[in-house]
Design a protein that fits this description.
By secondary structure, this protein is mostly helical. The chain has 6 helices and 2 strands; from the N terminus they run ααααββαα. Strand 1 and strand 2 form a beta hairpin. The mean pLDDT is 93.
């Protein structure tokens, strides 16, 4: 019988906890969470997305995302505006404040990735990314 310490789900959960906790520390000076960082990264790649488009990209349900976007708008990280192409919908973009944070956030993202994989060879890092992508589906 497999012990819980050898269970893939347990190992992934513990790895996630460690990575998430370390990333939270890196993001603390910016006053954002890892989820907010992810949304800012998505908007940095493609601006003026609808909440539904953001939801698809970050794999988050609409109700949860709505609350996160509201908090981000209150914090001045994003702008929500009426979509000129469809007045029934809104579009979301980065605020000037978030644009100023982009370089520092990219540095922290790179730093945490390097710290978490410091013990791995380049081959192992590439393999880990490939396996995680495969697990993600």
């Amino acid at each position: 019988m497999v012990q819980y310490e050898d269970c893939i789900v347990f190992l992934l959960a513990k790895a996630y906890q460690r990575a998430h906790s370390a990333f939270k520390v890196k993001l603390a000076p910016f006053g954002i969470t890892p989820v907010q960082h992810l949304i800012l990264a998505v908007l940095g790649e493609e601006e003026f997305l609808s909440p539904a488009e953001i939801s698809d990209r970050v794999a988050m349900d609409g109700a949860t995302l709505s609350g996160v976007l509201d908090r981000m708008a209150e914090a001045g990280l994003i702008k929500k505006e009426e979509n000129p192409e469809d007045r029934r919908s809104i579009r979301v973009s980065l605020s000037p404040k978030a644009r100023r944070m982009r370089e520092g956030l990219a540095e922290q993202r790179k730093s945490i990735n390097e710290e978490l994989t410091a013990k791995f060879s380049l081959e192992e890092k590439l393999l880990l990314k490939r396996m995680l992508r495969d697990l993600k589906g």
